[in-house]
Amino acid sequence: MMTSETEFKLLLHQKLCDLADLFLYQFDPCKLTKNGQACLLGDPNPCCTRTRFKREDGKPICKFMVDNKCQFENIECKTWFCPKVKEQGNPKCIKSLEALYVIAKLFELTND
User: Fold this and answer.
1) What does pTM read for this prediction?
2) What is the rounded average pLDDT of the residues 25-39?
3) Hey, which end of the chain has fewer CB within 10 Å, N or C?
4) What is the CA radius of gyration of the chain?
């Protein structure tokens, strides 16, 4: 059954996020603590300060971060890494997530 372009993009985005989660949970590139909140590589800025989702109140943390959990999962955030993770993380994991980002970009699921 054919789906609309919007339905296709929504489904593709969800599948890319699911694949990203598979790599993130398997390889734990950020060396997160058990609760999944704190980066142990030493970057003092949480990844969620780097998103395109700026807040109106000027605070640096992403507006979708509520109670230390993301309320709006997206492939752009799931495939962004600080320089320390890119340098020290598992190369297979980093390259796999970069490939997912390329697919997302190809189908205009990112802000690039």
Assistant:
1) 0.77
2) 67
3) N
4) 15
